[in-house]
Design brief:
It is a single chain. The chain is mainly alpha-helical and 78 residues long. The protein has 5 helices and no strands.
Amino acid sequence: MDELKWDGGNSSFNQKLTIFYDIYKRVELPKEAIIKAFPTILKGLVLDYFYNNQMSKDSFDYVTTHLYSFFKGPGYQR
């Protein structure tokens, strides 16, 4: 559902990530596959950024930290 996806805007990244973790655990997705499933909660500019920067090759922790910092950090606010 579109309302479960994060576009880098005013919606809460942490809330979207919590929902993602809940679904991830329910379907018993192997830990190795988490980065492959992660783009399903992204949309708009965030999804474009994820693919344009080939982030599927990076670790899940790096990707979540980097995306949050990029879209919600001081640079984004300017």
